[in-house]
TrEMBL record:
EC id: 3.2.1.23
Any one GO MF annotation of this record: beta-galactosidase activity
Name under which the protein is recorded: beta-galactosidase
Membrane-spanning segments: 7-26
Lineage top rank: taxon: Bacteria
Domain Glycoside hydrolase family 2 immunoglobulin-like beta-sandwich: start-end pairs: 227-336
Catalytic class of the enzyme: hydrolase
GO cellular component term of the entry, any: beta-galactosidase complex
Catalyzed reactions: Hydrolysis of terminal non-reducing beta-D-galactose residues in beta-D-galactosides
Residue intervals of the Glycosyl hydrolases family 2 sugar binding domain: 32-215
Entry keyword Hydrolase: yes
Single GO BP term: lactose catabolic process
Family membership noted in the UniProt record: Belongs to the glycosyl hydrolase 2 family.
């Protein structure tokens, strides 16, 4: 008996095999150009004048591949003219970073470091043998993903120039080309010229894939009929159970032809193979061109495509001319309709919620996108394992392999034109980019428009210029031309103007966590989206940082090295914390996961909210190094959250808990409402939900069930209430409340804390003070104990801004915009925390303690010194910080807290409990600090500023490092 999973796997394998078989059939007419090519760099643009196409180039290079992969180009230096903005140029000037600017130890923090770097012209050359049997055939040179402008010669004849970031470039060879040996010469130029899409566009920037030079996809010569299918586009109509097939035909100039076209189709990855009855129609070509439309009835039983059942068909179109010429083309498509209905998305008439991530073109082994289906299937399967169903491609369009893989996997895609027309460019101002965007998006839809996964499209990312006028016309153009997907002018932040005719919105504004106030799980984004009458998708949600994972560095075995990570690791060691790197990663990762969970849940409980695009599920290695992913740049887990754990709060169906807070006292009760967001394949009939409250040992304190209920496909489904009296809880305790839908994988859980409303009154045997006065020094000198509440008094560390939220994106890209920390690290087994239930990382009970609390910079403390509670600093500065520390001072013992902890705390149960725990510790025999610290060193915390502070040095990047595109 086959499981659904095994059947699905067999279908996928069959589908890939069919693709391979189809490719093999074509190879009878193909000559692969893979392998060794002759090569020469043309840094001075001498090649055309010198007619290099008629010479034998002196070097060799392997294609497909990039120059960097072949170790061609220039060495990386401080003078390298990168393609990409450098907003924090302090690296070039700060004395602290001087050692990373020296040859032999050059480490740049902005992005990954390629083996070589080159922007300019480069020549590639290969000899080919044209078979005699190709006489009378149309011969095409196909180059997948050259980067980016390509001029082609066959022998001494120039046959064309193409410039695109989005599709394969094809060049038709001369019709009179004789059989025998010929030389193909390519001139590839990767500079930004008149058409400037923006130096930070992910289609070319060094922030992501890198501005490489070469050809990285399939390369071949193909011979075929001189009468041929130029284009086939399939428009499914589910209501009529048919597909309209629009066909463009071509022949040689002034050639006429007529005959018959036959269409047939068959599903290929479904359990039962569905065959479509063939249909024929006459065609006519006049003056080399012809077109026709054919309605293809799909039969009474059709298989539709979506995330749950990604059923696909292959259309076979056969052309038979009366003069005997024949052509055949196969096209993959899915029967699906992706629409906006009011404020909701629908797939085949059923509501859909987009749970997405942004793909920023991070491919750290090659420096360019994966060109094979298997690599993209891995990415989409990992995304689905995390509960996602959608991917946006930030200012770039992936290769065809990505669309094939997304079709097979069942994944909704939003590719974009290759532009972030902002830094150094703009749209709507009459520049060449204005037409180029239309050209590129037309190339995208012609080549990839039949793929079912191609559901949405935008011009690109966050533009400058006369954008409203330009993008309104862009939307009108595409809505009139191709109804198979939805269009939004651009994916934008919250300050960008609204494009009025967007079919859906991708913008910020309704995202983020308002944790300046006490964390809760009731608020929504409803107010922020009420102005929109079309579906709303959150732009670049999340961006919560974690500390670098230095174990990741060994994975960089390809064209890139993680010199940025090397720099951060070396700097961490210089600040005496090398042994804490893994702990910082894990603790900051737990806070990151908590943030993602709460933001996603807030989105899921918001009425009329239709999706989010995380930035990003995996790390972004550019823009100063943005470690925002729960996965690394290789799509691997980092160790602090699994796909299964992430999926609990980011899935097609998610139980949600609505509570006003997560910290309680035992004279209260926990009152919660349960609801469900359900965007599954169909309504869940007679769903039975249950809940359980456990302590950390797993002991069940309370449990219950709700009445059975059918869950429609929507969110905000009200289930019922939970009431849990807390009066029996006498000591500080952490609990976990889990809600699950019985008999399914759908479950979710939340931690909460209960503290005694009245703590035992203790007569302190230590001196409590809020300043290191003479009395404090006297007591320490005489062997007594002191508790110093330094809240609001810290000078050394005053510049470090701590909130409960971690660093956003990274502190370099935003020039040290706060917050600067990544949560806290502590040891739960430390006796100082014996009466304060905690894990080793931030969780909700820490909010009232750490949010906006000062931190102390321990730059002058003894080597190896570790505080009781340690805020984790941004990895760009790696300051050794403390929130609570202990030390032997003089003959006495001291605890210092920069969080506000005192005997007079009111209505702050977690802070009161932490202070109580520290009191108990100070009056116990276990109070025995490990390190001795001079009184003046401690006092310096409240008197002297940090020795090293962040300085931008300049307001912009150095002029000599700025790309200089040619003026328009």
């Amino acid at each position: 008996m086959h499981t659904k999973a095994s059947l699905f796997t067999k279908c996928i394998v069959t589908a890939i095999c069919l693709v391979i078989i189809f490719s093999i059939n074509l190879q009878a007419q193909n000559i692969s150009l893979k392998g060794k090519w002759r090569f020469k760099i043309d840094a001075k643009d001498e090649g055309i004048k010198g007619k290099w196409y008629s010479t034998v180039l002196p070097e060799t290079i392997n294609l497909p591949g990039s120059m960097a992969e072949n170790i061609k180009g220039d060495d990386i230096t401080l003078k390298t003219k990168w393609t990409g903005s450098i907003y924090d140029s302090s690296y070039f000037y700060h004395p602290r970073l001087e050692k990373y600017r020296k040859p032999g130890n050059l480490k740049i923090p902005f992005w990954l470091t390629p083996a070589k770097h080159y922007t300019g012209a480069a020549w590639y050359q290969k000899d080919v043998e044209i078979p005699a049997k190709w006489k009378g055939q149309r011969v095409v040179l196909s180059l997948e993903y050259p980067h980016s402008e390509t001029r082609v010669w066959i022998d001494d004849i120039e046959i064309g120039t193409q410039f695109t970031f989005v599709v394969a470039q094809t060049f038709e060879l001369p019709a009179n080309l004789k059989a025998g040996k010929h030389t193909i010469t390519l001139l590839i130029d990767n500079r930004i010229k008149a058409i400037n899409v923006g130096q930070d566009s992910h289609s070319l920037t060094d922030h992501t894939q890198g501005n490489w030079n070469g050809v990285v996809g399939k390369m071949f010569l193909q011979a075929g009929s001189p009468v041929y299918f130029e284009d086939i586009q399939i428009f499914p109509d589910l209501k009529k159970k048919s597909a309209k097939v629009k066909i463009q035909l071509k022949a040689g100039a002034n050639v006429s032809s007529n005959g018959t076209i036959t269409l047939s189709a068959k599903s290929f990855n479904t359990k039962d193979i569905l065959s479509v009855k063939p249909i024929s129609a006459p065609y006519q070509i006049k003056n080399g061109v012809g077109s026709l439309e054919i309605d293809l009835p799909m039969g009474n039983k059709i298989a539709t495509w979506d995330e749950f059942d990604p059923a696909l068909y292959r259309l076979t179109a056969s052309l038979s001319a009366k003069d005997g010429k024949k052509d055949e083309k196969q096209v993959q498509f899915g029967m699906r309709e992706f629409k906006a209905v009011g404020r909701s998305f629908e797939i085949n008439g059923r509501p859909v919620f987009l749970r997405g991530t942004v793909n920023n073109c991070e491919f750290p082994l090659t420096g360019y996108p994966a060109m094979d289906v298997a690599a993209w299937e891995r990415i989409f399967k990992i995304s689905k394992a995390h509960g996602l169903n959608h991917m946006r491609f930030h200012s770039w369009c992936p290769p065809e392999a990505a669309f094939i893989a997304a079709d097979l996997t069942g994944f909704y895609l939003q590719p974009e034109g290759p532009s972030w027309a902002n830094h150094g460019s703009s749209i709507g101002d009459g520049k060449p980019i204005d037409q180029f965007i239309y050209d590129e998006t037309n190339r995208m839809t012609k080549n990839y428009g039949n793929y079912a996964s191609f559901c949405m499209m935008a011009y690109g990312n966050e533009p400058r210029g006369r954008q409203v006028e330009y993008l309104t016309k862009f939307n009108d153009y595409w809505k009139a031309k191709d109804s198979r997907r939805l269009y939004t002018g651009a994916s934008v932040g919250g300050s960008w103007p609204v494009i009025p005719n967007n079919e859906f919105m991708v913008r910020a504004g309704a995202r983020g966590l308002d944790w300046n106030k006490k964390p809760e799980s009731i608020s929504t984004y409803a107010k922020q989206i009420e102005q929109f009458t079309v579906p709303f998708v959150a732009h670049e949600m999340g961006q919560y940082c974690v500390f670098p994972n230095f174990e990741e560095m060994k994975k960089y075995t390809g064209v890139y090295r993680a010199k940025n990570f090397e720099m951060f690791q070396e700097d961490l060691a210089d600040h005496d914390m090398a042994d804490q790197a893994k702990d910082f990663l894990m603790a900051s990762g737990k806070l990151q996961a908590l943030c993602y969970k709460n933001e996603i849940e807030k989105a899921l409980r918001t009425p009329n909210y239709n999706g989010y695009q995380l930035l990003s599920l995996n790390d972004y290695p550019g823009q100063g190094t943005a470690l925002v992913g729960v996965l690394d740049a290789f799509w691997d887990e980092k160790g602090y959250i699994t796909a299964k754990e992430f999926k609990r709060f980011s899935n097609s169906t998610v139980p949600l808990l609505k509570v006003s807070k997560f910290v309680y006292t035992n004279n209260e009760s926990l009152d919660a409402a349960v609801e469900v967001a359900h965007f599954g394949k169909a309504p869940l009939t007679n769903a039975k939900l249950s809940w359980t409250i456990k302590d950390v040992s797993g002991t069940v304190l309370e449990k219950g069930t709700f009445d059975q209920k059918t869950l429609p496909v929507t969110n905000c489904i009200q289930i019922g209430d939970i009431h849990f009296a807390l009066s029996t809880i006498k000591t500080a305790t952490q609990f976990n409340l889990e809600v699950k839908i019985d008999g399914t994988e759908f479950a979710n859980d939340w931690n909460f804390w209960v503290y005694p409303a009245e703590l035992p009154k203790i007569k302190s045997i230590f001196y409590y003070t809020d300043k290191l006065d003479d009395q404090a020094k006297k007591i320490l000198d005489e062997g007594g104990n002191v508790f110093l509440n330094a809240a609001g008094k810290v000078v050394k560390g005053k510049e470090v801004v701590q909130t409960f939220l971690p660093v956003f994106w990274n502190t370099s890209w935003f020039k040290m915009r706060p917050p600067h920390t990544l949560g806290i690290l502590c040891d739960p087994k430390n006796p100082a925390l014996a009466n304060f239930p905690t894990e080793y990382h931030s969780d909700m009970q820490w909010w009232e303690i750490v949010n906006k609390a000062q931190v102390m910079n321990l730059e002058d403390f003894p080597s190896g010194f570790r505080p009781i509670i340690q805020p984790i600093d941004t990895w760009f500065l790696n300051r050794r910080l403390a929130l609570v520390l202990e030390a032997k001072v003089g003959k006495g013992k001291l605890i210092v807290s920069s969080a506000n902890l005192s005997p007079d705390l009111k209505n702050s149960p977690a802070s009161e409990q932490l202070y109580f725990s520290l009191q108990q510790y100070m009056m116990s025999e276990k109070f025995n600090p490990k390190y001795e610290v001079a009184f003046n060193t401690v006092k310096d915390i409240v008197e002297s500023p940090s020795k090293i502070q962040f300085d931008t040095f300049t307001k912009d990047s150095p002029d000599e490092l700025k790309p200089k595109p040619k003026s328009n």
